[in-house]
Design goal:
There is one protein chain. With 672 residues, the chain is an alpha+beta fold. It contains eleven helices and 31 strands. Strands 21, 22, 25, 26, 28, 29 and 30 form a seven-stranded antiparallel sheet that branches. Helix 2 packs parallel to helix 6 and helix 6 packs antiparallel against helix 10.
C-alpha cells in the first residue's frame, strides 16, 4: 500500500513540477515577439486491475504543447501582408499627391503664368519686353515640367532600390526558415515531441517574411514547412531555400523586377502580377498602377502642349515679317516636335533583327474652309508593346488597358493614338518591343534657343492681310483672314473686286460659305447670294476670309489681298496662341491643358485617399485578428500567476501524499 502511495505521489509531484516549469516559461516569455503560450498536457497512468476493479496509478505529462491555431495565425498573416502592401503603396503615392496638388509648386500656376505671358504679347506685339516676358514664362513652365519629372525619377529610383532591399530581406528570411526547418526535423525526430520554441521562431520568421511578400505554407510529415509565393512558386522546400533576384527587366532595363534563380544558375523574371502582398507587392503595385501612369500623363501634357502650340505658332508672322518657308523663320517655341524620335525598348530575349522607330503625329488641325476650332492631339497616356508573330505578323497593344490598337503584316508605317510608328525590319516570332512615347517628354522639353536669343522671332502676327481700296463707296468688308496648315501666301498682291452681284478675282479653286451653312466650291466669280442666303466667307489655298456689309449699288469696290508687310502691331496669331489655354487641345479635342492636369491631380488624390482609408480599415482588421489570436496564444500574466499558485498547491498536495505514505509505513513497522 505504501508503495502505491509513494509512486502515485511522485507522479503527481512530477506533473506539478512540469506544469510549474511550463508556467514559468510562459511568464518570462510574456513579451517575447512571436511566443506562443505553452501548457503541459496531462493524462492518467495505466491502471492496475484488481479484484476490486481498476486501481489508478497516478498521472503523467504526455507533452508540452503550444496553444496554437493555424487558422487564426493565417488570418493575422493575411491581414498583415495587406497592411504592409497598403502602407508601402500609400507612403509613395502620398508624396506625389502632395507634389502635384501644391498650389505653388504644381503645374497649374506655371501654365497660368505662361499663357499670361502670351496675352501680354497679344496686347502689344511690338514691345520686345512683352516678348521677353513670354519667353521667361515659357522657361519657367519648362523648369516646372523638369522639376516634377526629376522628382518622379527620384521616386522611381527609390522604388527600384527598395525592391532590391526587399528581395535581399526575402532571401535572408527564406534561408533562416530553411535552417530552422532542419533543426525542427532533428529535434522532433529525436524526442518525438513538438519543438515548441523552434516552431515559434519559425512562425515569427514566416510572419516577417509575409510582411515583405504574401506567402502560403504547407507542412510536411517530418515537421518542416514549405513556403510558396505568387501562384505557387517555391521559396522554401524543407531545408532547401530558393533565392529571388532583383534584376533589370528584360523589356525595360530602367525597371528593377523580381526574378527567381533557377537550379542551373539562370534567372526567370517573374510577372509583376505574381508579386502580391507585403512591401514588395505594394511597391510593384504603386509603380505599375500609379507611377507609370503619372509619368506618362505628365509627359503627354508636355508633348500635347508642345505640339499644339508649335502648330499654331507656325501659322504666324514674326516681327521681321518672315512667314513659313522664309529663310530664318522659326515656327517652334518648344523642342518637342513631330520629328522627335520616341523611345523604343528592345527585349533582351529577342532573337531577330527587328527595327522600329516612332514619332508623334502632327496634331489634328482646324479644318477648311473656315478653319474654326483649334489644334488638338489624340495622345493616350500609355506605353505600347509591339509583338511579332509568325510570317511577319505583328500586333500593337496599349499597356494601360491591354487593348490592341493595331495589327498587320510586313514592314511599313502605321498610326494609332497620335503616334506614327514605322516598322523598318520585322522581328522573329516571339520578339517584343516596348514603345515608351513619354518617358523623356517632360524632361527633354525646352524653349527653342533661337527664340530665346531673339524674341522678335515669336510669330505674333498673321501672315496675310486684306487692304480695302481708298475709293470704296460701299460698306462691304473682307476680314484680314485666317490660315490653315499648308496655306500658300500670295506671291504677288491679289486684287479682289466686289459688285452688286459677285465677288471677283479670287484665284484658283475657292469654297464659298453662305449664311444658311451651304458651301459651294468653284472657280471664277463668287455669287454674293445663294437663294435667300448671303455670302459670309470664302476660302482658297488653305486661307479663309469672312465678308460682311453691302456692296456698292453701282460699279465695284476693290480690295488687295497680300502678304502682311506691316505687321508690327498685328497680334492675330498671338490671340490664337492665347486661346489655346481655354480650348480643348487634348484627349481628342475634349479637354484643355488645365483640365487634363486637373484630372491627373484628382486621380492621384483619389488613389491616395483610397489607399489611406483602406490602410486604416485593414489596420483595424489586423488588430482584431491579432486580439483573437492572442486570446488563445498570448500570455496572460494574471492567469499565469493563478496557475503558479494552483500548481504549487498541487505539488504540495502530492508531497503530502508521500508524507502520509511514510507515516503508514512507519506504523506498519512499529507493529512488528
Amino acid at each position: 500500500m505504501s508503495s502505491g502511495f509513494f509512486s502515485i505521489g511522485v507522479t503527481g509531484m512530477n506533473a506539478a513540477q512540469l506544469n510549474l516549469l511550463a508556467t514559468q516559461h510562459n511568464v518570462v516569455n510574456a513579451t517575447t515577439p512571436g511566443y506562443t503560450r505553452q501548457r503541459a498536457m496531462q493524462a492518467t497512468n495505466i491502471p492496475v486491475m484488481t479484484g476490486a476493479g481498476a486501481l489508478g496509478m497516478g498521472v503523467h505529462v504526455q507533452t508540452i504543447s503550444r496553444m496554437y491555431d493555424s487558422y487564426l495565425t493565417q488570418q493575422v498573416n493575411t491581414a498583415q501582408t495587406r497592411v504592409s502592401q497598403l502602407d508601402a503603396f500609400y507612403s509613395q503615392i502620398a508624396q506625389i499627391d502632395n507634389m502635384l496638388a501644391d498650389p505653388s509648386a504644381g503645374m497649374s500656376p506655371a501654365l497660368q503664368g505662361f499663357f499670361s505671358g502670351v496675352q501680354h504679347v497679344a496686347s502689344d506685339p511690338s514691345l520686345i519686353s512683352s516678348r521677353q516676358a513670354m519667353i521667361s514664362s515659357a522657361q519657367t513652365l519648362i523648369e516646372r515640367f523638369q522639376a516634377l519629372d526629376n522628382r518622379l525619377f527620384e521616386i522611381r529610383n527609390e522604388v527600384n532600390s527598395r525592391i532590391t532591399d526587399s528581395v535581399a530581406e526575402v532571401n535572408n528570411y527564406s534561408t533562416m526558415i530553411a535552417d530552422i526547418n532542419q533543426r525542427i526535423i532533428l529535434a522532433e525526430a529525436g524526442s518525438g515531441h513538438s519543438a515548441n520554441d523552434l516552431l515559434d521562431q519559425r512562425d515569427r520568421l514566416v510572419a516577417e517574411l509575409n510582411q515583405m511578400i504574401r506567402v502560403t505554407t504547407t507542412t510536411n510529415s517530418d515537421g518542416s514547412l514549405n513556403v510558396f509565393i505568387g501562384s505557387g512558386q517555391q521559396l522554401v522546400m524543407g531545408n532547401l531555400a530558393n533565392q529571388l533576384v532583383a534584376m533589370p527587366s528584360a523589356g525595360d532595363s530602367a525597371k528593377t523586377v523580381v526574378g527567381l534563380r533557377l537550379p542551373n544558375g539562370g534567372t526567370l523574371e517573374m510577372p509583376e502580377s505574381l508579386i502580391i502582398g507585403g512591401e514588395l507587392g505594394g511597391l510593384v503595385e504603386f509603380r505599375t498602377k500609379s507611377l507609370d501612369a503619372i509619368e506618362n500623363e505628365l509627359g503627354r501634357l508636355a508633348a500635347s502642349l508642345s505640339l499644339t502650340f508649335n502648330a499654331q505658332l507656325a501659322l504666324g508672322q514674326d516681327l521681321e515679317g518672315r512667314i513659313a518657308g522664309d529663310s530664318g523663320f522659326v515656327g517652334t517655341l518648344f523642342s518637342i516636335t513631330t520629328d522627335t524620335p520616341l523611345t523604343v525598348a528592345t527585349n533582351i530575349h529577342n532573337t531577330g533583327s527587328g527595327s522600329l522607330s516612332a514619332t508623334f503625329s502632327p496634331p489634328v488641325a482646324p479644318q477648311p474652309p473656315d478653319f474654326s476650332g483649334n489644334f488638338y492631339t489624340e495622345l493616350r497616356a500609355s506605353d505600347y508593346q509591339v509583338n511579332f508573330g509568325a510570317g511577319g505578323d505583328w500586333t500593337v497593344t496599349r499597356l494601360s488597358d491591354n487593348i490592341q490598337v493595331a495589327a498587320g503584316n510586313g514592314t511599313g508605317p502605321i498610326s494609332f493614338d497620335g503616334i506614327d510608328l514605322n516598322i523598318a525590319a520585322l522581328g522573329n516570332n516571339g520578339d517584343r518591343f516596348v514603345l515608351k512615347p513619354y518617358v523623356d517628354a517632360a524632361q527633354n522639353i525646352a524653349v527653342d534657343a533661337r527664340i530665346v536669343a531673339d524674341p522678335r522671332l515669336i510669330t505674333a502676327g498673321g501672315p496675310v492681310g486684306v487692304t480695302p481700296g481708298v475709293a470704296n463707296s460701299g460698306s462691304f468688308e473682307i476680314s484680314q483672314g485666317v490660315v490653315g496648315v499648308g496655306y500658300t501666301a500670295p506671291a504677288a498682291p491679289v486684287t479682289l473686286q466686289v459688285t452688286a452681284a459677285n465677288l471677283q478675282g479670287v484665284p484658283g479653286t475657292w469654297t464659298a460659305v453662305y449664311s444658311d451653312g451651304t458651301q459651294v466650291s468653284g472657280a471664277g466669280d463668287i455669287a454674293l447670294n445663294s437663294g435667300a442666303a448671303r455670302l459670309v466667307g470664302f476660302g482658297y489655298d488653305n486661307m479663309y476670309f469672312t465678308v460682311a456689309g453691302t456692296p456698292p449699288p453701282a460699279g465695284a469696290d476693290s480690295f488687295t489681298l497680300a502678304r502682311n508687310i506691316d505687321g508690327i502691331q498685328d497680334s492675330r496669331n498671338a490671340i490664337l496662341l492665347g486661346n489655346l489655354q481655354t480650348q480643348k487641345t487634348m484627349d481628342g479635342g475634349t479637354a484643355t491643358y488645365q483640365a487634363a492636369y486637373g484630372k491627373l491631380v484628382a486621380d492621384v488624390g483619389i488613389r491616395a485617399r483610397e489607399a489611406n482609408v483602406q490602410l486604416s480599415a485593414q489596420t483595424v482588421i489586423l488588430q482584431q485578428a491579432q486580439a483573437t489570436r492572442d486570446a488563445l496564444s498570448g500570455v496572460n500574466l494574471d492567469e499565469e500567476a493563478a496557475n503558479l499558485l494552483r500548481y504549487q498547491q498541487a505539488y504540495q498536495a502530492s508531497a503530502k501524499v508521500l508524507e502520509i505514505g511514510s507515516k503508514l509505513f512507519d506504523t506498519l513497522l512499529s507493529l512488528r
